[in-house]
């Protein structure tokens, strides 16, 4: 039975995606900084495992990977991120504002992906996916502000493109998905359920031609 690891799986899209994969018979490793709702774990038939992961904790990724004890993983979906809610003007941005956004959205995903490489190599699907943002697209720039968030997600896109080249020789497929239009949808909301179903369907049929590219949940490529 295949296995997916999802970060920030305790709420929002991450939780909806976890529920979607459970419904389709997968094993789910749900990583988050807070425990998952016990009602989900109790009804999963032992197919869900919860692990603690905090992208702002330097040692969290190492502890997570250690707990997996070399387990094969077919799909990794890195879902968490820190938003740029302050929308500061350039002159008002400080290192204190910038650092956690870049750390959580840029360094943490790459660091975790690097540590999970042996697990992905053992899996059959070998898919590394991440949630990006439409505001990272240079081709579709439409609104001002959100400097740190834009920079962090643009960097994430570039890193996933890098990994599509670095890890191509062992069959890894890297995928980026735009989920921002569903930020405010709750678990159980039709939009959220539809996007989780779309992401899973896309992942099921993804191949090397899709690797290193950026997609909507319904399979349209976004130029960035």
Biggest β-sheet strands, sense, barrel: 7 strands, parallel
- DSSP E strands, number: 7
- The neighbouring-strand order within the major sheet is 3-2-1-4-5-6-7
- Ranges with pLDDT <50 over ≥5 residues? 182-190
Count of spatially separate domains: 1
First-to-last CA distance: 35 Å
Rounded mean pLDDT is: 87
The portion of residues assigned to helices is 40-55%
- Can you count the helices? 6
SS content category: alpha/beta
- CATH topology, by name, is Rossmann fold
Shape: globular
> What is the C-level CATH assignment?
Alpha Beta
In CATH terms, the superfamily is NAD(P)-binding Rossmann-like Domain
Q: Do you know the CATH architecture? A: 3-Layer(aba) Sandwich
Classify the beta-strand content into a percent band. 15-25%
What does this protein look like?
The chain is α/β, with parallel strands linked by helices. It has a single domain (3-216), classed as 3-Layer(aba) Sandwich (Rossmann fold). The protein has 6 helices and 7 strands; from the N terminus they run βαβαβαβαβαβαβ. It has helices at residues 12-23, 38-42, 60-68, 95-122, 147-166, 190-205, and strands at 3-7, 27-32, 48-52, 75-78, 127-132, 173-178, 213-216. The chain has a 7-stranded parallel β-sheet with strand order 3-2-1-4-5-6-7, sandwiched between helices. Helix 4 (95-122) runs parallel beside helix 5 (147-166). The chain starts with a strand and ends in an 8-residue tail after the last strand. Residues 182-190 have low confidence and may be disordered.
